[in-house]
Amino acid sequence: MAIPMAKHYKVLLLVLSISYLFSGELTAATTATTTTKKALNFIKSSCKTTTYQTLCVHSLSTYANTIQTNPKHLIKTALAVTMKHAKSTKLFVSHLKKSQYRTLQDCAPSPYVFTTDRLAEAIREMELSDSESAPQSKFLFHVSKAQELFTSASDDWEVENTCSGRFSSTVTSVQARLVNLRKETSNVMSLFNAFAN
């Protein structure tokens, strides 16, 4: 039995529409993959200027679609990631002070007290550097100051004390976070210097 002409055209139109939709999705997926590859290559290439290249690539690859191949987006993202980790570390240390305050005070009265203050100052410095109107020298000044504060806070936790025995895993965890922050701010400065030059 022959298919009526009108029905035949409808079927043909439906098949063509589906094919067009699939080819459009395929093209979009291919474009997205190409864009992501370009962005990842850009991140890897940019991170070669940093001291801690593996950390740089690892922390920024997740944001490849945001960064694309834009140096400004790269630096802003690196700064935002470091700030996020700094805030998380500050919260972690603050929580420790509340839950284990008496023990920490008994075995290390000064270093642990000042760590959250230094972290708060470092975060303020990073926020000051994240300004559209800030000149290059100001950006570097504030990020450098933040790095100093992370280093200082990190040194607090490297002091040998009786807490180490009771809270060895906690001390190690905080030290690792602070060392990571010091490395991340170093990377931010390297990335900024590379593109400023």
TrEMBL record:
Residue ranges constituting the Pectinesterase inhibitor domain according to the UniProt record: 38-191
Gene3D superfamilies: Invertase/pectin methylesterase inhibitor family protein
Organism in which the protein naturally occurs: Eruca vesicaria subsp. sativa
Record's keyword terms, sorted: Signal
Coiled coil: none
SMART domains, per the entry: PMEI
CDD domains, per database record: PMEI-like_3 (cd15798)
N-terminal signal peptide: 1-28
Protein's UniProt name: Pectinesterase inhibitor domain-containing protein
Family: Belongs to the PMEI family.
